[in-house]
User: What shape does this take?
Amino acid sequence: MALVKRFTQFVEPPSDGSIAHVPEVAPSLGPPKIETRGMSFFYGTKQALYDINLQIQSRAVTALIGPSGCGKSTYLRSLNRMNDIIEGTRVTGEVLLDGMEIYSRDVDVVSLRKRVGMVFQKSTPFPKSIFDNIAFGPRIAGETSKSELQGIVERSLKQAALWNEVKDRLKESAMALSGGQQQRLCIARALATNPEVILMDEPASALDPASTARIEDLIFELKQNYTIVIVTHNMQQAARISEMTAFFCVGRLVEIGQTKQLFTNPTQKETEDYITGRFG
Amino acid sequence: MKLGNDVYERRLIWRHRIGLCFEWLCRLATMGALAMLVVLMGSIFSSALSPGRGSGLAPVTLTETGKSLDTEGDVTYTVSKVIGGDFYFASDPEEKIKSFSGSEVRGGKVVFNHNGKRAAPVFDLTVSDKSSGKEPIGKFKGVGPGQIPSECPVPDVHPPKPAKPWGWLTLSFLTHGNSDDPLQAGIMAGFWGSVWLIGLTGLMVVPVGVGAALYLEEYAKPTSLTKFIQLNIANLAGVPSIVYGILGFTVFSRMFGAFDQHETIVSLKFLQGLGFKPIDIVLPLGPVILSGACTLALLSLPVVIITSQEALRSIPASLRHAAYALGATKWQTIWHQVLPASLPGILTGVILSLSRAIGEAAPIAVIGVAAHLSYAPGRITGISDLVQNPDKLIRAPFDRFTALPTLVYSWVNEASPNFEHVAAAGIIVLLATLLMMNGMAIFIRQRFQQWNRW
Assistant: This one.
């Protein structure tokens, strides 16, 4: 009974429209790369996110955790406007990338997505050669020089720690790679467009522990040059790789803080219940 | 409910038996289909390769061969049994005769009419000396060349020469136009007519069909109008082909009768600027390749649209999302990812519908295509001719033509003998053309499919 009572306290939106707990704003390490202010998100008439205030630091890993259906993936996809593909979605509030509103009318979605790359839960290599997979992004951006493309492909594959495994078979189908290799290929593909931010939606959830470890190592490498936002169900993973962790529940941002602090000393009861496995 | 052990076991056994039954039923069905294919191909090939009825249908005048016997005068032949034809007096081809004299044979009065069913006729003869009354001199059985006993003068009936000893699928069959004489009839005009027809149909169907499928699947909002269009396309796929024939006749061949009073001639003068001879197009088009191709294009369009839509729908959304996430526009996503990935499926639809179109006789016949044509469309005789007169390539779509199924249909309908063999040879050419087309498409499909594995 107690658990149900605790739970409903999030399900029912507060009557005065404000949020119950003002999340503690993360200690600033300079200007945030991405900032959302009072952001709400709607699928048609159904509201999926309520008034999210969140700052994402540059060149750091921010992990989004929370139970299934809490809106963390929706939040992630709204950062590069991938939700625009779905009919009838609507965003209110502000989403700022380097202080620029990305939902304003004059923003080009295509160039935004080049700055904010994305890696999905299921690896989705294109049914083409490994080379063509990586070169697709630069090609549609207008890059035609063969030598330039070769340079980009090599650099991206090296960054994604895949180069040594595939350098002799760049012309072969990407579908022939193993699951872990495919996911690293997708990361390399995202890196090829030279983004500033990489959004990762449970990138390792379908992989075995060895492949997961490789992806985590990779994220650790990448955060020196890129801003990474990662959604994960694996709390150990969040604790291992992220600097900042945000806990979402039922469309609300419950708590955000430095990972170590959030996992050892959460300020909210719900966070504690979730990370200790008592609910969610 | 708790089941006893024996009940449970019996159920297991029955489940196993039913499974076996189904397996064997499926196996039988497959074997039946295979047997039907073998019988079909066997009958067509045996007919096409059979020598056919030869000149034996014309009366054969008998001669006496062998040594003359020691007879005092004329001999009399009495026929006791005959298979493969009958003896007649040349003056009266209606009445069979059973008895005739040697002088009548020598005088050319007796003929043997071969019934065309056997290569060599067989008959039993009794030879008797007429004047001496001594009889019989001898009895002979199984008369045919080489079997005639040499001591007796016997009417010599040669077996009819086969019309085409090597079957009907010969080089001359492939290189000649149609003719009233089954021995002269060829399929060249029909083959090139069908090639032009199906080429133009494909050129029209693929861009329009795939474009419509792309619009309906990727761009159109699911309004009630889209649903209505969708339903109608599905219905059109089931419309009988003869209905399309009537449509093609009215719209393309007769052009609604708009030019019935005075034929209009459209001169394509701009071709002169390109270095061609100018070409005059007579309106209404009449039964030309272009109207046939337009009709077949309409016929195959619904199937192409539906199968292309299926192919586009089968592409996982994750592929599109991945492309969008890399900064691709909608068009770039469709052109670079969705379309190549769905190409195998689209090609399957195109193959299916074009294969149906190439075998259609009814709509082509309704348009008014004649079977008796002895030249290829545009009167193109060969590659060297084409190099010298490249304007024939533009002339051909506006030329009258005949197609493979039309030819086969007309040959099957011919009353005179031997045309059934010509038809069989024609069917083989049609099937070979189809196989070639499908083989090409399957090859292309395989090349694209090797990348797709999800």
